[in-house]
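Question: Hello, beginner here. Any chance you could explain the protein record under this note? Any guidance would be welcome.
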Amino acid sequence: MTKYKRFLAFALCSAITTAVFLSGCSGSENNIEDEIYIPILDDADVNFSTVTAEITDLSTYFTARAQFSSPYYERIGFTKASGVVTEMNVKNEVSVSKGDVLVVLNSEELEYQIEQQELKLNSAKKTYDTLVGEDADKNEIEYAKIDYEVELAEYERLTAKREDYVLTAPCDGRITYIDENLRVGASVSQGRTLIEINDTTRVALCASTGNQAAWNLPYGTQVSITQGIMVETTGTLVDIVDGAMNRKVLVINLNDPNVEFEDFGNMDISIVLNSLENVIAVPKEAVKELNNQKYVNVLANGIKMQVDVETGLEVGDSIEIISGLSGGEELILN
């Protein structure tokens, strides 16, 4: 192709391009708006799932299965003496009665002291009796009497110590623990727990729990008690004691001691942990969170607005709104 033909072709293409461009730019501004349209979403045309922020009462409850049992245990050992075991009358899971002799320690040294003191006591008494019989000087008789009373007091103190060497059952019950090293001939030290006895004379309605919120309930807390649909009554929390496996046992006295429970069917208790009146509550799903700030979406006059809130107590699917709402607002869930 010659340079002339190339020039004609280029000029023709430029003319066509210019014509197209001028054609596209012709017309008024109204024509531009008619041809270029960006759709805008209107909240009024959207079907939101909403719920109303209600003013209501909120309560949280502790619930547990309960049964009548003996929650108290006596852990015993020698509190005032140490020594070698000479007698042992205990076995695991065996019932005992209050006062039963369980373990005896060797008390030979004590018995020797008692014998020596008895000699002193007899001598002091003989001296006193002799002076009285001889109608001796009153002062001399008085001094002899004082000596006798001193020796008598020491004798009584020593004989009373015999109890320190004998371990007896403090209550009726069942032995649940024996120190594995406890046996005849073994040495035991003062203050060491040797035996545990479940006190079967103290029976109460009990509920075992690992819920630490229940561990801090104050004594006197009221308890609702049910046994299916057959029994409905109340009780009072009177004690919280250590249980097995890092649990605590709630001990409950019945407010009506004459209420009769069935021999079958579970017993359940319910205790109010927290109770709030006239608070604003919304479903948990209505509360969102962004950058550690909680908020809700409020629908007002068809307009969606984000409102920051502060939350509080949670009860089931509901949550307390401490600040941000006044109640009655329509909240968007979806």
In short: Residues 1-42 have pLDDT under 50 and may be disordered. The first helix runs from residue 3 to 25.
